[in-house]
Every structure is written in C-alpha cells, then in structure tokens.
Amino acid sequence: MTTQTATSASISAPKNMALAKAINESLRKALEADPKVLVMGEDVGKLGGVFRVTDGLQKDFGEDRVIDTPLAESGIVGTAIGLALRGYRPVVEIQFDGFVFPAYDQIVTQLAKMHARSLGKVKLPVVVRIPYGGGIGAVEHHSESPESLFAHVAGLKVVSPSNASDAYWMMQQAIQSDDPVIFFEPKRRYWDKAEVNPDAIPGPLHKARVVREGTDLTLAAYGPMVKLCQEVADAAAEEGKSLEVLDLRSVSPLDFDTIQASVERTRRLIVVHEAPVFFGSGAEIAARITERCFYHLEAPVLRVGGYHAPYPPARLEEEYLPGLDRVLDAVDRSLAY
C-alpha cells in the first residue's frame, strides 16, 4: 500500500473550534505522524463524511490513506482487523450508531478477543468511530446509544468525549493505543465550540474529570450529557444548591476512584446518560459506588436516562431524552432523603 503525506494545516496555537473540527484536526495530525494510520468508512473520502468530520483528508493524504468503503460494516471492521494484523492502525467510521450491528460480530468475536486468544502476542490497534446519541431530529437507527453493549465486552476500550479539547486529545490517545477502542462521538455536540490547545499535555485517556466543583451532590455523565449536567448545576445554583459535575470520559474502563472521591465529598450521586437506564452503564456505577461508599451515602444512587423502549420518532425524542427538568427532579428526590 502506498502512502502520501500532506503539508500540515493543523492548529499550532490554542484555537476555538467545534468538536467535529477537533476530530478532523486530530485525524490529520495522526495521518501526518504515522504512515501506518489509515482512515476508512462509508463516504469518509470524497464527501468528507455525512457530518464532514473527515472533510479534506482524502484530498490531502490520498485514496490509499483515506479510503471510501462499500456499504458493508462487517466488511469495514473485518478489513481493519486484517490491516491491524499487518501492522497498520486503522481508524474506521461507522456512519451512524444504529449501523454498527452488522459489524458487532466482528467487533465482539474477533477484535475484542484476538489479544487474549493469542496469549498477548497479537495486538489490534483499531479505533472504531461511532457518531451516537439523539437530539438531531434523525430517522430510525440514527440516534441510538449502544455504549453499554460494548462496555460489557472484555478486550474493548469504550470512550466518549464531551467537548472539542477532549475530542482532539482522546482521538490521538485512542489511535496510539495498542488495544481496540470504540470511540463514541456525541453527534448533537459536533457543532459545540471550545478551546483546543495542541501543545497541552493530556491526562490519561480513561481518567474522569471534575468539570465543576460542588458540595451537595455529584452529577456524573459522559459525552452529550455533560453539557446538560452543567446546565442543571447552573439552574440548581439559583436555588442555593451546590452540585459537582463529573465528566467520566471513559465508559470502559471506568474511573471509579474519581467518582468515589467526589461522592465522599458530596454524599450523593446521580448518573445521567442518554442510553436506556435498564442495564445501562449507570447501573454498574450505582452498584460499584454503593459498595465503595455505603457509609458515606446519604441517599441511594439515582439514574436518569432513556426509557426501556425503542428510540422514538424525531418529533417525540425530546420526551425520551433526559432533559433539564428530569435531572432536576432527580436532584430534588436525592436531596429529600
């Protein structure tokens, strides 16, 4: 396979940019730095992706590095596994969350298992990018939040940035990882802007972060719900309530130490995610924190998320998705104990 490099057009100083642009810049940097990095997926090349996340990359790096694939998710991931076995670092895009399931067999039975199956001799440094979640008025199969399905599988790392800076750095770290990473991109936040500093030293990929300090209760979220939790904290502050907000950043592994430290300070925890509450990631967090913090908790760990039902038509999605009032109601219930 031939390779082609490009003159760097990436950022060189802190710059305000949208989350989608930050991922684009991060992919560009990875392609420049390592000729073994490839970008693959449906319409990622000439079109630049349906959300334009890969816009301009094929033009600058060529069709051998940024590859338009057939509409065959199983084939995309299967090909990436073969390339990884030959020393490449493929970054594959699943165009929408609900399209990943034809590739689920490849991800779960091959990508996640090969390292253990080979007794550690074989590594598969594959990143699977999945735009996920609702809030954009999309049709069926375009607004799912299937992160718990992947977090349940040993051998996969599952992460989701909530802002442009994390998107930039976490993509770099995911590509550099020798383990397969499922990279969930919150599509409703693609156009949210934040400052990105390409010279900042990033924290560990799977480390949670306190984005707002508080004393009365902890809100823990990741991806698209972090911004909502910050809005909830603002609203609660007007009523004299001090809420701490955690950005978990990683779903598997989970940074339980940071969650525990926060709960020991606030003594209350609410976990918020778009995915259905039933068997969701919040359930694991609630169980583990109850074990760790039993004598610190002054209320049961509560969860706010989607309903245990198929994702509704776009005109009803605001009723399905967690919103300000639903999270504030959980805050009131927790503080009432």
TrEMBL record:
Main enzyme class: oxidoreductase
Pfam families for this protein: Transket_pyr, Transketolase_C
This protein's record includes keyword S-adenosyl-L-methionine: no
InterPro entries recorded: THDP-binding, Transketo_C/PFOR_II, Transketolase-like_Pyr-bd, Transketolase_C
Enzyme Commission code: 1.2.4.-
Domain of life assignment: Bacteria
Keyword Nuclease (UniProt): no
Single annotated GO MF: oxidoreductase activity
Ranges of residues in domain Transketolase-like pyrimidine-binding: 17-192
Cofactor: thiamine diphosphate
Keyword list, A-Z: Oxidoreductase, Thiamine pyrophosphate
Protein name: Alpha-ketoacid dehydrogenase subunit beta
